[in-house]
Amino acid sequence: MTHSPHLAPDALGPTITIGEILVEIMADFPGNGFLEPIALTGPYPSGAPAIFIDQCARLGGAAGIIASVGDDDFGRINVERLRKDGADVSAISVSPDFPTGSAFVRYRNDGSRDFVFNIAQSAAARIGLDAQARTLIARAGHLHVMGTAFAIPGAFDIIDHAIGVIRPRGGTVSFDPNLRKELLGHALTLQRFQRLVDIADLILPSGEELFVAAGWEGEAAAVQALLARKTPEVVVKRGALGSTYFGSDGRRVDCPAFVVAEVDPTGAGDCFGGAYVTCRRLGMPVEQALLYANAAGARNVTVRGPMEGAGTRAELDAFIAATPRCTP
Ligand code: ATP
Ligand code: MG
Fold this sequence. Notes:
Layout: E1 15-18, E2 22-27, E3 40-46, H1 48-58, E4 63-70, H2 73-84, E5 92-95, E6 101-107, E7 113-118, H3 131-138, E8 142-146, H4 155-166, E9 172-176, H5 187-199, E10 202-203, H6 209-214, H7 219-228, E11 233-237, E12 243-247, E13 252-255, H8 268-281, H9 286-301, H10 313-322
Parallel strand pairs: 1-4, 1-8, 2-6, 4-5, 8-9, 9-10, 10-11
Antiparallel strand pairs: 2-3, 6-7, 11-12, 12-13
Helix pairs in contact: 1-8, 3-4, 8-9, 9-10
This protein binds adenosine-5'-triphosphate and magnesium ion.
């Protein structure tokens, strides 16, 4: 196994991310929408950046998040979860005026989802570059950008500032381009998206996101286009089919998936990313980082709730030992 240290070591400072914290409230049974009274379970801590950073912290990586919640129980349940799991919550601001973001979710029988969101008018959209955010950024070693942050006004100024501080001190950047494609209709958003693709040390796409990031259709062409743009690592997430690393060193590493019964797919990609970034920053070779990342994604889909299945190192080791894998 070769160890190519493309990401800054954990000792340089925490992995940080920026973006929405939400609660998710889930329908107990599949069906269409919310047009009648139905049984619901929640609130569950959620938000793609929050799930990502929780997985980083649970695995033992230094981790922190810049986000905003309301002065309410939905905010407290999130902050307490992240704190308990070891994340730095000092840069989560508490809005006196806006409630914590929320998402009501109901799966349809075909696996698609209906949502009722309160994000744009919630505390989640009120993040800014305050003193606590600056302090966290000043000691960060790695920035993980979630595409979902592109929907939040103000997030990009923080991302820009963070890149300008973290890069010069030897830190690195990863990018999960999981954003709504329509957002790229905006010229400025597209320009910012392209800039992130250009500077990222690691890109973590799934499905179509690879083509959107690369500007090419077809996996081989898209991966080559990204590597030609000097992206050191591209890691493709393939749901129940596992994942693949493509490196600027010309290496390809395929990691077969774990065989699990999927209960709730939400958060798999975020747990995968959190585990991969953390394992690489802790010095693990690609093969081992992919194994933990696959395990983190797979374990999370076996549990109801967006981040309820994020695993510690010991839990992931137990999961890996006990769970069969697809044949490559
Ligand atoms: P999300 O829905 O959170 O945006 P994503 O599309 O970014 O997810 P996925 O490819 O769905 O990412 O999941 C990430 C990883 O989690 C996969 O590469 C795989 O390793 C693991 N995983 C996800 N779903 C399953 C599954 N049903 N069975 C086994 N492993 C899974
Ligand atoms: Mg995704």
